[in-house]
Specification:
43% strand
Length: 139
Amino acid sequence: MRLKLNSLLIGFLLALAGCVPATTGPAPAQPNPDPKTLRLSEKDAGQIVYLGIGDTLVIALESNLSTGFRWVLPAFIDGFLLEAQGEDYLAAKPGVIGGGGRQIFRYRAVRTGQTLLQFEYLSPARQVQRTAIYTVVVR
């Protein structure tokens, strides 16, 4: 009798376990129905930046590619949260050597979480001249 009761109890618990959906964490975030574009410059470095899923982050940093100076993102970008959308250079005066301009980096928020973007401005000899660090929170 006791064995039969234990078998019934185990069978009931197994059946009940099959009725409960498995979860592996929070539900995926829904895209922002009205995505925004947030534009930052070097003067905004050090700030915490808040984005929604689908929002675009544009960072424009003063640069001088014509003399060999350039901004780089030395650590691998966390493609899990932010998806790189490309990089451009806009010369202040096209065709003028030493005229300067802006490097423009674009990212789209694809998942919730927090990451760090740490840009380094390098000389032609690959020496770090300055940094621009942004903490990005996607919610």
